[in-house]
Amino acid sequence: MNLLLWVTIGFITIGFTVPNFMKKGAEGKLAFITANMEDEESSTKAKFIIWWIVSTTGWGIVSMFLIVWCFHYYLG
Q1: What's the N-to-C CA distance of the chain in angstroms?
Q2: Is the whole-model pTM more than 0.85?
Q3: In whole angstroms, how far apart are CA 46 and each of 22, 33, 52?
Q4: Where are the chain's structural domains?
């Protein structure tokens, strides 16, 4: 098989696995933020959640690009 296919499969697999493991921590941080709105530590935890959302969105965009590229390469 081609390296492009393996990179795509690996990227998507890792992208599903890592955010799912991090989801529990993000939920805990969100619960802390909602309970302690005035705490200084809340802003640090909020930054983590924002970066988690941004990174999963970026992963989704790159995954869609790789899938389209694979279809174009193998079917085109």
Answers
A1: 17
A2: no
A3: 14, 7, 10
A4: 3-32+42-75
